[in-house]
Specification:
Blueprint: H1 8-26, H2 29-32, E1 46-51, H3 55-66, E2 73-79, H4 83-93, E3 96-98, H5 101-105, E4 112-115, H6 122-131, E5 135-139, H7 146-157, E6 163-166, H8 174-183, E7 190-196, H9 222-226, H10 236-240, H11 252-268, E8 275-281, E9 295-302, E10 306-313, E11 323-326, E12 329-333, E13 337-342, E14 364-367, H12 374-387, H13 395-414, E15 418-421, E16 426-429
Helix pairs in contact: 1-8, 6-7, 7-13, 8-11, 11-13
Amino acid sequence: MKRTNISRRKFVKGLAGSAAGIAVLRGNPGISAMSYSRIIGANERINIGVIGCGGMANSHMEALLNMKQSDNIDITAVCDIYTKRLEKAKELTKAQAFKNYQEILQKKDIDYVLIATPEHWHYQMTLDAIGAGKHIYVEKPMTHTIEQAKDICNKIASSKLKMQVGVQGMSDDSYETAHKMIEEGALGKVVMAHIDYSRNYIGDFWAYEIDPDARPGINLDWEAWLGPAPKRPWDPRRYFQWRRYWDYSGGIATDLFIHRVTRIIKSVGLSFPDYVVATGGTWNFTNSVAEIPDTFNMMLDYPEKTTVMVVSSLANDMPIRHVIRGHEATLEFTREGFTITPQEQSELAIISGTGETVKGTNLFTYKKTGAEDITLHHRNLIAAIRKNEPLKCDQDLGFYGVVACMMGVESFRNRKYLKWDQQNKVIIES
């Protein structure tokens, strides 16, 4: 079928209207500069409790410590079941140290908790934090299962608490801006999006170093770490390399794809898919003990008549273009933000990671503000607590991501094409 060309005038006019709307997204500078003294609670220090003191938690703690003076916050309690990690966190933060996270939740002076544990613990700790009346920053994915995510959404919605899900890329304003422009018709009908998250591991994948100092029953509480997961004998690989095992992780889907699919969901304005199918396997690291695959791909059909494709290899890191395809134009995310190319110009466009194009191609280019940044993400939660500002990745967006990724996991593990029941919010086999 011959493509109907969209006039250049129409395309430019549409972008102009969309670009004007961007100012609304960025807010009123006068309001953002309002004196803190005029905002209830703005002068009060916010105390933070950290639950889980592993690698990702260290990045969070360093960011929060750097924000201590500027944002009037403080880490006053830390918790871990491994004494070595707990002592390092205590030394870093000068905070009280606990081995049982419930003790942090019982502290009346804690305003919000950072949950940076393996994902199999996210649900119970978040549930308990809600019960204790604490605001929450929970690392991605929000929960380990869809049912858990549904429950958390319901409980947060019936509370006055704020919860940020740790998809830090949502602090990049590209996705809110793209959504605004797509809503205003800059791409025409969106029919497809594709995005990737690939790495190239050498030797084996996600085989993090095993600390020989770890001694279960002496300086590490293995039973407490397992918690809601199936009971198993001590295995240092499961503790230090937990991303490789289904008991504690959704593998590529929940550790990597959650970042990517959330961006597309936000940009296009999607929620729950209609159908999901996933493919892949262990194609390269065939001698690995890992249960999860090293190659994983998901295809999601949404009720908006849009297909989203997400692909990954852990043995080859050549990226694909991160693109949203519309009938009238194409949006491509770049390191600087994104570009939009009208369809009649698409054959001329060669877009690099910096947004550069060949001569003669007419593009709309958006330069982002913000970034994939832990500091910005926590600062957004703090603003939500103090000023009721909207969250960049709230429980609803977290829920959409969990459904997309866990449907992919279930499809892959069962080799089935799955359908989502929109009314009851459950998976059914197609």
